[in-house]
């Protein structure tokens, strides 16, 4: 069961400049940064609010670290902007299997590692009215 | 001060079919529907979670009701997908003026009426790293 908007993933050309924009314009601070080698991105998580399922909602700012990453290709085509949205669930495995069973393409056979030790998968945007959609189960004791 | 992700605005060609996708796939239910004549859209709000500022986070599904609406033009160019993101604040007037003072273009001289009696304004996407960004102050006793 999906219980929150976990994050909005925003692709950018220059992570440091984009982080500074969000800090200077809105006062949002960096909660966490990491490089996800598998996804080919360097990212910053800005925590915006807590959620009533015990989690939180973030902006996830993404800069590609190699030209063959999906985010680099997306940026080359679309320019900067919202790359994906993510819903939080306590059970990414069960939910992604249930959604696969409804005919929506799930992009990974098994969930992979996402931000802050979470487990994630993605749904095909063409099956989701144009929205690349991620499902996230946070690592324990994240917040 | 922006205290929550208020909603993610998603543009679609057929609101009823898109509402049904979100219901059948994720179990999200319609919280509210309305037509905003000024914006030229018919919309459905799906409430996803409560937030720790006393508000909530929604998906806002948007179908244009006339061809000259900004959402109709956006759909013709981009196809279905994430159209904008919105942050909630208790003071859209003060925050939008402060942000204007930082050199970010605010699209309305004064906030206008948004979903569920809220007061809204938008920031120019070219000043926000490609993200059309809305600021929202909810109507009292909304939740």
TrEMBL record, chains A, B:
Residues 4-138 form the VOC domain. GO terms for molecular function: metal ion binding; methylmalonyl-CoA epimerase activity. PROSITE patterns: VOC (PS51819). SUPFAM superfamilies: Glyoxalase/Bleomycin resistance protein/Dihydroxybiphenyl dioxygenase. It comes from the Bacteria. Keywords: Metal-binding. GO terms for biological process: L-methylmalonyl-CoA metabolic process. Belongs to the methylmalonyl-CoA epimerase family. This is Methylmalonyl-CoA epimerase. It comes from Streptomyces carminius. The gene is mce.
């Amino acid at each position: 069961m999906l219980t929150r908007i976990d994050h909005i993933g925003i692709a950018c050309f220059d992570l440091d400049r984009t982080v500074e924009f969000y800090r200077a314009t809105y006062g949002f601070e960096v909660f966490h940064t990491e490089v996800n080698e598998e996804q080919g991105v360097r990212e910053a998580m800005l925590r915006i609010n807590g959620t009533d399922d015990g989690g939180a909602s973030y902006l996830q700012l993404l800069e590609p670290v190699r030209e063959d990453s999906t985010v680099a290709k997306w940026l080359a085509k679309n320019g900067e902007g919202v790359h994906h949205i993510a819903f939080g669930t306590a059970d990414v495995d069960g939910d992604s299997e249930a959604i696969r069973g409804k005919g929506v393409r799930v992009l990974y056979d098994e969930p992979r590692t996402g931000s802050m030790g979470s487990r994630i998968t993605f749904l095909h945007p063409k099956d989701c009215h144009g929205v690349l959609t991620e499902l996230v189960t946070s690592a324990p004791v994240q917040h």
